[in-house]
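Retry 2 of 3 after timeout on previous attempt. Resubmitting structure tokens to design endpoint.
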């Protein structure tokens, strides 16, 4: 299932977009302002972002610029601003499409489908990447670099680091990590998680992974 993040501050339009997207078979996340949008964006991997421009706290241009610093995720701006100047500014920030309000929901769904289909084709030839501070993870080649220098991680260590980075700011318990990466339930030996965390920290030579005593591990959100 594809995941779409809707960034829109109008409740009625939020509800309309969410209902149509769910009905079309997409999983949907809703953000009401620019800060919430960035928080949700960092919490998991999204396949596409529908982004309003006139948002509280951080406007759509600012959100787009920050996302583009770390990702090529498809972005469609959906806004009442229809001037050429606003559209050009969006495309200068490398958005994929610009839709003005009011718009046809069936047409928007077709645009989304086309972009996702094109992205799926591109993923076969272009590696997906995940960036965090001076770390860069090539999700297809299983390569980690720190300030451009390759770091040798085992596949399990790579998956552990990826899971923590995809859930920035969230504490992942040992049992959660066992269930996700080792397919253990509550019967698993949680000490294996501690061992892998220790190895990842040593290899990265970075203190990005925090221990939350008695609970689990966390990577702080990167607000850079």
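Retry 2 succeeded. Sequence:
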């Amino acid at each position: 299932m594809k995941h779409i993040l809707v960034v829109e501050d109008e409740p009625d339009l939020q509800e309309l977009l969410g209902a149509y997207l769910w009905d079309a078979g997409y999983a949907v996340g809703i953000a009401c302002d620019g800060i919430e949008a960035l928080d949700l964006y960092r919490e998991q991997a999204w396949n596409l972002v529908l982004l309003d421009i006139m948002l509280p706290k951080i406007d759509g241009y600012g959100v787009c610029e920050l996302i583009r610093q770390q990702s090529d995720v498809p972005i469609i701006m959906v806004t009442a601003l229809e001037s050429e100047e606003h559209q050009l500014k969006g495309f200068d920030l490398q958005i994929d499409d610009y839709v003005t309000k009011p718009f046809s929901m069936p047409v928007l769904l077709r645009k989304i489908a086309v972009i996702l289909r094109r992205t799926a084709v591109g993923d076969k030839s272009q590696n997906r990447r995940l960036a965090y501070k001076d770390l860069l993870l090539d999700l297809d080649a299983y390569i980690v670099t720190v300030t451009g220098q390759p770091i040798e991680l085992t596949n399990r260590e790579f998956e552990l680091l990826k899971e923590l980075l995809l859930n920035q700011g969230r504490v992942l318990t040992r049992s959660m990590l066992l269930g996700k990466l080792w397919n253990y339930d509550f019967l698993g030996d949680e000490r294996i998680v501690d061992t892998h965390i220790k190895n990842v920290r040593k290899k990265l030579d970075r203190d990005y992974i925090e221990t939350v005593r008695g609970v689990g591990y966390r990577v702080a959100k990167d607000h850079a």
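Attempt log closed. The longest strand covers residues 3-7.
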